[in-house]
Amino acid sequence: MKKNWILATAVASVLAACGGGSSSGGGSSAASSVNGGASKGIIIGGVVNAYAIDDSGQVDKSQTLAEPTTTADDGSYSLTLNSNYSGGALWVEITTAEGTVMRCDLAVCQRDGNGAPTVSFGEDYPLASDFSLSAVLPEASGSVSASITPLTSTAAALALSKVASGARPADAAAAANAQVASRFGLASNDLTAQPIIDITSAAAVNGASKEQLDYNLKAAAAVAAALGDGETVEQALGQFVEQYKNAGVADYESTADDDAASIEEILQQAQVLLDKVKALDGVDNAAVEEADTELEAETAEARNSGSDQPSQGEVPDDVGSEGLRASKQFVAQLRDLASAGLMEDDSGARAFGEQLEMAGEVLSADAETVVEGLARALNAISYAYEAYAEAAEEGEPAPTSYSHGDGILVTIAETAAGVQYSVEESVLVGETSVAVDVVAADEVASEFTETQTLDGDTETTESAGSISGSFTLNGSAASSTVRLAIAEDSGFSATLHGESTFENTEVESDSGYSDDEVSHEELTVNDLEISLGMTLSQLTGDNPVSFEGLMTIDIEDFSSASDETYHDSYDRDEGYDFSIDQTTTSSLGGFEWLLSGRAFDQDGSELSASIALQADNFSMTCTDQRSSSSTSPYQAEGECELDETEESYGAANVTVSFGLEIAGLADKIAVTASGTRSGLREAELDLELRYGGKSLTLAHVADLSEEAAEGGSVTVSNHNDVVMTLNEDADGELSGVIEQDGVQYAVIDEDAGAPMVTYSDGEFETL
Prior knowledge:
Layout: H1 5-18, E1 33-37, E2 43-44, E3 47-53, E4 59-60, E5 69-70, E6 76-80, E7 90-95, E8 101-103, E9 108-111, E10 117-120, E11 124-126, E12 132-137, E13 143-145, H2 150-164, H3 169-183, H4 202-206, H5 210-226, H6 233-246, H7 263-278, H8 286-305, H9 323-341, H10 348-361, H11 365-393, E14 401-403, E15 409-415, E16 418-429, E17 432-455, E18 458-478, E19 482-509, E20 512-538, E21 545-571, E22 575-601, E23 606-616, E24 618-629, E25 632-642, E26 651-660, E27 669-679, E28 682-691, E29 694-703, E30 712-718, E31 722-728, E32 734-740, E33 743-749, E34 756-759, E35 764-766
């Protein structure tokens, strides 16, 4: 086994592929404590009870297993189990009393008869008398966390149906919690251990991790997705729980009239709620943007590579495993993944490599040529728009066509919906002819002003202009080998404002001339939204490949300021002198980019993927100096630098999500890779794999500074909350531990020349 096992096994075996039983633990007659929180959103003054589940799948409310308590102002509670509890599955339930309220964690929780909101995000909502929220635990022993949310209520209902079908209550509880966790893409199977976060409180949000935000947002969004017109929050909760218990949820709806909530709708609602969170005064947590980026990618994946058939989630074969047993199963899980990824024959690595090669086919040089041909046509349309707007500004007749410098003819037509610009001709790109047939229509309001003054030899021109509106776009571009089609619902919208000042001083004399110019230009772009549906297809070959998907770009604000001085002179005695000095400062805020789709060939191979990127607070300064004269050769230099400090730097998050089938594994793997810029020279990197109800998450903090020490560390955790921490020193030696719930069950070292795991019972094995 090579050194650097961190990469070779924990990462490389996975990325190479990418480019047993239940433990009920027995009963306890000693007093145990149950504590946690209740959220649909935060429930204040709710009554908390604990009950047993009988073998028929009914909650036995004939006796309580703890003295009832009430939830505090932050939704927390604490129960102490009494002597009636003798072990086994535990049902924890919250009901209402007089004055019980819920802090609304939906965009709107209540409307009046006219549909106007009466209780909105962050406001208190009085709960109905029949409201209840529940969670089910396989057992309670010692200190047990039992957060209660719509997702735990869903798992609790599913567990009862399993018991009614013959399952043991403890096994049913563990399985149901794991199924719901896997269906919602959560890294941990223990739903009841997830911390409750008041997403309506800036202080609570600022203290939350990305994983905690993800869980709480999805829990609230499940109800939001089920909430129909005229329905109450309580009714929506009940409908979602019933839907999931009976059938589960599909990734997306196959028909527009499908009333069932889908994963896609839930994720969309989670993004709506996250926008509410962002708008809270005082929110300052990078995890908010990280969660947003992942939700973007997950939503696209649900639509692109998901199924319209409902599912209740998958149960891992080691569900509920604890302690030493869970630690050994964790190591076996790593080995299984490594073996599957490194198989020689028909390997998952080879299969995925072929899929990537297939995707690369549609990004060939031929495809680039076609895209350039389309871009030239759109550039010609932009000039045609300027010509049309200038004619309108000067009161001249509207042009019916415009011939661009590239020889591209744009036809201009006024319609009831706006002005239509079309190109239908061949565009020559190099030696390749690209047939372009594209139509753009605008609904744009524009305003321009310009003044000119003359003072001696200096002419000053001041201009300003604003454009606000939208363009729709559709059409195609094709060569003899590749065709690119733009969907009819594509287009973009934005508000642009520009200002410029231009001073030109020209002096002529008997011996020569001088031309000096000073200019200042400013451009701002606000609320830019681009949505481009596309299909890129090969037209030749034995097994042509196609890509179909969607690209969206959103920019809240972009600004640019440029200052330039220009000098050009000639004197027959002194010769010529030329120079340009330009400085441009640009800033970007609220940038979001998403590309999602699938590449497929005629033989049935397919690869679906989504890439989401967010960036904010980026500022850059670029300088450009050029000069030459009769006495010195031409010189040019320029550079661009980010305007950043240790305290103020650009934030960026990127998430890549795709599905992967590997020979040697029965289940398809859902892969999510995330990167977050967490410092000026620091990044957090995460890789999460989900398959068959199991999950594996690798987390690493990368020090990108030049003075970074050799070595590093990585943590690897799974669905049973087993955590392996590996450290590599400057000599490449590895050491580490394996833990669950803070208790150590194994150590890792390389004293024997290969990574060795030694368990707390004395057993050992190599990795």
